[in-house]
Amino acid sequence: MKFPVYNQEGKEVGHTLLPKEIFQVKFNPDLVHQVVLAQAANRRKVIAHTKDRSQVRGGGKKPWRQKGTGRARHGSIRSPIWRGGGVAFGPTKERVFRKAVPRKMRKKALFMVLSAKLKSNLLILLDKLEVLEPKTKQMAQTLKKLPLKEGKVLIILPSYDKNLILAARNLAMAKTIQAKDLNVLDLLSSKYLLAPKEAIKVIKETFLESAKLRKDNENTKK
Prior knowledge:
The protein has helices spanning 20-23, 29-43, 103-119, 136-145, 162-168, 184-188, 197-221; strands at residues 2-6, 12-17, 123-126, 153-157, 174-178, 192-196. The protein is of the alpha/beta class. The chain starts with a strand and ends with a helix.
């Protein structure tokens, strides 16, 4: 399918072909939801942590003798019922939130979101994207010239470009990502997708041709 290509001045300069295997995939909300939940869980950092009675300092000595004092029996001042003692059933940093999702499911969900962005006219392709200096002002001026309305923009880079990353990192409405690292969660976190033509080639090589190569290798081994 043909898709218009713009230059950095916001003018249409031609068309390019987009692979239908990536940009014409039927949307399955259940699959996308499952992949998003898994990726969000895998990025989650365990912060809350409490100490149980074995981790709290002190409490080695019995506070008072077992009998004859008229008080209740206690073996340690670090018991959960004591002030300053351990916490019973509290959150710990040993919790694991990771969820595994098969590679094929992740790839399929990625293609679904890319297809949905294209269908909603939220994908903008450029003939090239470059800045002479790592200046935020240059990137902001480029984004203003493009057919973008309000909303966050995910800038897909074909390869690592230090100038572009530095120029975009101070813009609250923009985020950069390399095409090889593309994922569903980052796609859905931004409204618009902005990419040079070379990025589409990298996406195809990374997620489409590499999958075919793995499949051929598996068939060869069999």
